[in-house]
Amino acid sequence: MIQLRVNGVAQSFSGEPEMPLLWYLRDVLALSGSKFGCGIGLCGACTVHVNGQAARSCVTAMRDAAGKEVTTIEGLDKNGLHLVQKAWMQINVPQCGYCQVGQIMQAAALLDGKKKPTDHEIDEAMSGNICRCGTYQRIRAAIKAAAGEMA
Amino acid sequence: MSEIENVSRRRFLTGGVIAAGALVLGVRYYRKLLPGEKLPHDTNADHAALHPSVYLGIDPDGSVWIVASRSEMGTTSRTTLPLIVADELDADWKRVKIEQAIGDKRYGDQNTDGSHSIRSFYGAMREAGATARFMLIQAAAHQWGVPAGECETDLHVVVHRATNRKADYGELASAAAKFPVPPKEEVKLKPKSAWRYIGKGEVSYDLEALVTGKAIYGMDARLDGMVYASIERPPVLGGKVKSYDEKETLKIAGVRQTVPIDPFKPPPAFQPLGGIAVIADNTWAAFQGRKKLNIAWDNGPNETYNSDAYKNELRATSHNPCKVVRNIGDADAVFTKGGTIHEADYYVPLLAHAAMEPLVALAEFKDGQATLWAPTQNPQAVQDIVSKELGIAKEDVICHVTLLGGGFGRKSKPDYAAEAAVLSKKMGRPVKVVWTREDDIKFDYYNAVASMYMKAAVGANGKPTAWLQRSVFPPIPSIFDVNAVYGDAAHLQQGWTDIPYDLPNLRVENGPAKAQVRIGWLRSVANIYHAFGIQCFTDELAHAAGRDPLDYLLDLIGNPRTIDFQGVEYPNYGASMEAYPWETGRLRHVTEVVAEKSGWGKRKHGKGTGVGIAAHRSFLTYVATVVEVEVNDQGEVRIPRVDVVLDAGLVVNPEATRAQFEGAAVFGTSVVRSGEITATKGVIDQSNFQDYPVARINEVPAQTNVHIVDSNAPPAGVGEPGVPPFIAALCNAIFAATGKRVRDLPITKLGLS
Fold it and tell me: What is the DSSP letter of B579?
């Protein structure tokens, strides 16, 4: 039996310990905000926070989530008004939106550690998150806008 | 409930349909429902107090329901089309509720491709809003006993200024419904000066849902009792299962069973590819079970397909006379005279769509009806293929359209939805088919591989006296007819037969190529390779003549004129030549403006840096792009800046339009940097983002400046037209920076590093 907390709620899981956290969140808990994009940690659509760090839930086995605090987009801010989410709306970042949940989780983790990231630091932190619609220019602007708000 | 569900839509349709076509204006469309009775897939607009159009309904509380009949994949059409209705209705956007249509021919064409949502539905949307506004005014005038001509509207209210009376749309909705729907000729559209939203735009109706994870994509659809399926498909197109062993698969916890899917009978069209489906209690178990399948395949005739050899075949074909698809003067006569002649081969490989949401569909077959939830660009095509596969009437296929996690043309082809329907029928329960990224890359309908041979004789000033271009590519019609080998007019028009240059001698040709994979539409389609060939060859000729590429390009475009397509089959993207003539003056104008905006010729470019330019019309929109690049000693390409200028006629939503052109630069960057699908013995070599990389934040243009030209022309496309000139301009910039000419995409083959 694996014990973990998801968005502040204690959960236990008795299935395959090798099952990736992503499928537990999506198929078992019906938290569909975290997205499936590649299944091998290359696109970042599945990004969640594990103990406050950005993690690719598609390659995080349930056994490795044991005892951890997992935060998904559903739990990032109870009103959906995290500074990063607000900045995303202000800059009108999303096109199809599918990758944006992962982008937002990645950006929120970046800003947790770095209050004023440079362009280079933004590129470094965000280069694991693919957006096929090509909203990168706005992602960069939104991260800067959120950083400005935090300052 | 079950009684209602069992009543097929067809029975309602019989005898009750009052009109056909894109916009069914009239009394309640077909229903004779009992009071309170509602079909599960009816729209709220259908049941609103005032319902003068299939696209629109107004409730007594003033809520305006607007039906989005086209799919949302990121272009914001789900917002922009309703915005047009709201403008003509003079409605308060905050009181508008958008609902997504199911697949239903009463909405007209729903295939959200070809960058024509606004162009094709702009008129219908205006008419729908204006009709309701007309009826609301009539109701108010009648209530107040004043002439309708004295009444006007102002943001969700009808006003009679002389008597200082006003009434909210909600108060008037039921009364307005008693008036007949006016004939089109009586309905007056707003003058441009009175527009509230058109030309100003709005952010996506779904914006908040998109950033909070609440937006529902196909991947997020759920039904009670559903099972998950992952399918091992024949690795070679047209292959079949010889035999298979499921023993190890069934040992995986959560796997329920395997189900074979029949191979398709050629041509493939949108049929399932066949294979073995693993059915499980969750997605991951289905994926795991699939890995344990032991299948022996009969690969069939496409096992001979190797993309390297195929490339050589295309090129060889392009070096010999092919079918002439447009001719002016006598190019050969000039070539035989000798003089200075330039030749070049250009090549673009197969490209995959790789939308962020892999293909997925949920289907429930019950009581002779199939209900689907799918991220589809074309729900009516889902109805068609599912009805064929299951042997039921098209009306018994209900296709709900979820949000799409990207589409780029792939989700116009509903093979994945057909798989879900077939499996649900076999399983007797709801089935969700989930494609892996590997499936998505390996079983795509690829953008055609193309080889282009370019030849020009040049005279004084380096200007061509004769121009010959031949393209060879497996055509999209090959998915419907295995013998189709020549480009069809719909794709030859895409930047090939419509080469806009003012040339005395021009011959445009197309050669045959037999497809050995499924070929399909991908954002910008044939314009990708055609613009690459023409716009880069133009740049070559400019440099060969020692001329400035901008001046040279303008010289070739020539004086403003309308292209005469006499003797050429030119479909003009389905639009009339009267409303959308091919005007070289507009192409010239965007080129001049982009030169100015980018500071062409005014900014200094040091070692390893350079700028490139290209201009192209596609989907009826004129675009010119300037790209700046820096290439360092390691051969790494950076793109500091892009300037793009577009003339898309009337632009309803400028903000969404800018976003599309920013995105197009990124899409084009992927094509140039790394876009390449290859095959060995009929099997696609690539599988995921490690071997089919798409552009990441550190690889894309640092800044893309989009400038929209004011235009009185009717609306044209914005989703696709940004890609083709970007690709050519980037390649021309790389030449300017390095002296290396990109003729063979992607640039991994250029040897920069």
Answer: T
